[in-house]
């Protein structure tokens, strides 16, 4: 059975509250789970101790059993010092979109045209 440690959403509309659960990966996100391992409240400030609560002994047990944490849970474990920090690299995130690139090229072309007559005037003097 493929196990995952993941978030199960609770709370009302626009007021999310998540349970950190160990579940079979084939079950739906908010569906059946095997064990509740903690809670996550994204509405609290980032420096609050109440924001993420985990039973680390049980989390470690499930990791030893072969459960795979999701990306968000892996970040929580890195912050807690249980897991080594993974190297993340998304070079496409910094690249501007197609329209922004076109605007930047047009702006650079316009600046080059404006600079050309000023250089000619300076050269004549």
What does this structure look like?
The chain is α+β, with helices and mostly antiparallel strands. It is built from three helices and five strands; from the N terminus they run E-E-E-E-H-E-H-H. The chain has a five-stranded mixed sheet with strand order 4-3-2-1-5. The model has no long low-confidence stretch (mean pLDDT 88). This is Small ribosomal subunit protein bS16.
Summed up:
37% of the residues lie in helices and 25% in strands. The chain is an alpha+beta fold and 125 residues long.
N/C terminus separation: 82 Å
Q: What would you call the structural class?
A: alpha+beta
The CATH topology of the largest domain is given as S16 Ribosomal Protein, Chain: A
Low-confidence stretches: none
Sheet with the most strands: spatial strand order: 4-3-2-1-5
Characteristic key phrases:
ribonucleoprotein; five-stranded mixed β-sheet; Ribosomal_bS16; Small ribosomal subunit protein bS16; ribosomal protein; 2 domains; Ribosomal_bS16_dom_sf
Secondary structure layout:
Blueprint: E1 3-12, E2 15-24, E3 35-40, E4 52-54, H1 56-64, E5 68-69, H2 71-80, H3 98-124
Parallel strand pairs: 1-5
Antiparallel strand pairs: 1-2, 2-3, 3-4
